[in-house]
Amino acid sequence: MKKILLAVVISLGLFSVLAADSTASEKEKLPTISAEVEVSKYASATECYVLFLLESTGENLQDAKAKFDLKRNNFTELVRNDFPDLNMDVISVNIGTRDFSSFRAEENPFSPDIAKVLLFTLPPDENMALKLLDLGVKSGLMPFCGTSPDGTFGALFYGLKNANAEINDLYPQAVQKLHAQANRLSHELGREIVRMDDISRCYPREEAYELRFKNIKVILPSEFCASDKDKIKVPLILRADFIVKEKKSEK
What we know:
34% helix, three-stranded antiparallel β-sheet, Translation Initiation Factor IF3, single chain, 4 helices, alpha+beta, 37% strand
């Protein structure tokens, strides 16, 4: 009796292995097609960025720094009362000689110079930002009129600090568009979709939003930025593989 039971167990196990191998083999034979779609939407800004280039020279670097600190402190004190929500980041550009981008030691004398970018973050209020720019110019600061990746110019830009909500809103639309594209492709190939095998998503702007001015590069804090506060483009790309099989012939 034990021998019979053992034989039955071995037979069932062998059948399961063969069935699994057959299923795996069948799965390996099924081809896949790939599809990719991009969707986007415009969102309103949550932040505003105003940029200045502040530069000071002196008899030596310590003297240049003292003058720089005085200019910066005078300006920040001037705007503190009118802009209570103002946040400032100081980005070092040059601590060395004037005309640093074209300096040649054998041709030009060393001229102590300190240059930094003042990046102000404030609410997305254009009137407030323009007032800050006017005060900066009046105080002797140079607006950092940079060129953006979108081909726009200026010292005033807007950003969307967190785009998760917009991306989540785009996801169902992208999935629907992805399936439609895969269905068209499979129909052209004379096949039908079994299922979606893998999906991934990414964002076209893989690099940070960078401004350029006088050979100086500044990266804005937000990933999605624009010069128009109501037209910040948020894109989403979906890619997926679909397992397909031969379409059954109609009788």
